[in-house]
TrEMBL record:
<keyword id="KW-0472">Membrane</keyword>
<keyword id="KW-0677">Repeat</keyword>
<feature type="repeat" description="Solcar">
    <location>
        <begin position="237"/>
        <end position="318"/>
    </location>
</feature>
<dbReference type="InterPro" id="IPR018108">
    <property type="entry name" value="MCP_transmembrane"/>
</dbReference>
<comment type="similarity">
    <text>Belongs to the mitochondrial carrier (TC 2.A.29) family.</text>
</comment>
<feature type="transmembrane region" description="Helical">
    <location>
        <begin position="286"/>
        <end position="312"/>
    </location>
</feature>
<dbReference type="Pfam" id="PF00153">
    <property type="entry name" value="Mito_carr"/>
</dbReference>
<feature type="repeat" description="Solcar">
    <location>
        <begin position="17"/>
        <end position="135"/>
    </location>
</feature>
<keyword id="KW-0813">Transport</keyword>
<keyword id="KW-0496">Mitochondrion</keyword>
<feature type="repeat" description="Solcar">
    <location>
        <begin position="143"/>
        <end position="227"/>
    </location>
</feature>
<keyword id="KW-1133">Transmembrane helix</keyword>
<dbReference type="GO" id="GO:1990542">
    <property type="term" value="P:mitochondrial transmembrane transport"/>
</dbReference>
<feature type="transmembrane region" description="Helical">
    <location>
        <begin position="107"/>
        <end position="127"/>
    </location>
</feature>
<keyword id="KW-0812">Transmembrane</keyword>
<dbReference type="InterPro" id="IPR023395">
    <property type="entry name" value="MCP_dom_sf"/>
</dbReference>
<protein>
    <submittedName>
        <fullName>Solute carrier family 25 member 40</fullName>
    </submittedName>
</protein>
Amino acid sequence: MSGNSGKNPVPVDTNGITPFQQMLASCSGALLTSLFVTPLDVVKIRLQAQKSPFPKGKCFVYCNGLMDHTCVCTNGNSKAWYKAPGHFNGTLDAFIKIVRREGIKSLWSGLPPTLIMAVPATVIYFTCYDQLRAALRVRMGSHAEEAPLLAGALARVGSVTVISPLELIRTKMQSQRSSYRELSEVIHSAVRNEGWRSLWRGWGPTLLRDVPFSAMYWYNYEKGKAWLCKHNNVREPTFAITFISGAVSGSVSILAVLSAQLKLFLSSKASSSTLSVMTKIVAENGVGGLFVGFLPRVIKVAPACAIMISCYEFGKAFFRKHNQERLLTSTT
């Protein structure tokens, strides 16, 4: 008997890896995604600021490839990264000039504070999805193929519910220029003045936007991945297969959700506030106004989805192989 026989095998779930390893894989994927995608949004914001300078109190959306964050311009300080001087003639020109004049680090301006929310949200989301999908496939029997649809929706509800109050508090702290030492006071003030439910303000609209996309994304991703594996005659998906599946699924899901929202509007079953906004858009810009920004969003979401899911799957494959090797070692 070998001296390794006394080692305990790594406890794994039905996916061949532990939940903690899933969390590590999603965390590494989240960091890599933000590093690749953030520069695109930083350049976009700089171009927006050049066209229409951000005054005090103005809000803008900052996306690090993982989630959207509302940022508030607190003062007229020209040293803020989004107010740095510069004349750009387009996206490529902006990239070159920002790197040349401000250094390559400037392409990730504003990233660290957003990662405090985005990384935990991504870890919760991806880990919950995998755990739910595994459990639902067992319970759903002949309908197991639809498990990714339900698992994706439930995982997004869970992550949004956990992160929404934290993101709201972050925005309040930024607008009030509060430090993290004053965090408890910010929370107590919000609860005292508006009640506990105020911490989840915007939760409903966020779910309406994210849950349908999440459900469609995971369903399309799993279908696309399975089809590509079969087409290429491989048992385990390669990095290229997961990358392509993620990009295509992200693009298709955006189109599907946008089409569903438009159908909801045309059937007049949307909430009064949502309906009034959409009606105003159509009145001013026509039905095409509802699709404004679609192409830029696809350009941003498709690579983000591709990078995140391929890195996540690569991480899981790495841990799965590691666990198998440890298991073989422990039994010899």
